[in-house]
User: What shape does this take?
Amino acid sequence: MGGRFLLYTDGASRGNPGPAAIGAALYRMDNGKRVLVDQVSDAIGIATNNVAEYKAVIAGLKTAMAFEPDELVLRADSQLLIRQLEGRYRVKNPTLQDLFSKAKTLLRALPSYRLEHVPREENVVADALANAALDL
Assistant: This one.
C-alpha cells in the first residue's frame, strides 16, 4: 500500500505491576486527513506500565508493517519510551532492554520514521483501546 502513516500507541497497567493491556491505532494519511486502517487492543497479563508501553509499540509496528508504509510517525504519551527510542535516555531495566531492542529492530526496517511525544489528550484512541482490553 505505501504512503504516510500515523501510529498512536499506549500501554496500561493497573497496579504497576498488575493486569496490563496494550492499545494502538494506525492511521493512513489521505489528502491531509487521517483514516483509521487498523487497531490493536489486547490484554497482556501481569506487567508494569513501561513493559505495556513497549509491547504496545511492538504490536503497533508489526501491524503497520503489513501496510508497507513509506513513512511512519510513531506517537506516544510516554515521554520515557520516546526518549529511550530516540537514544536520549538509557534503558537500564533488563526486561525493557529486550523490548527496546525489538522495537528498534522494527523501526530500522522502515524506510522512514519519526518519533513524537504527545500529550495524553492527543492519545485518547490508543488509551481507550488499552483500557477496553483491561475491562474485558
Observations:
- The longest strand covers residues 33-47.
- The chain has a mean pLDDT of 97.
- The domain at 4-135 is CATH 3.30.420.10 (Nucleotidyltransferase; domain 5).
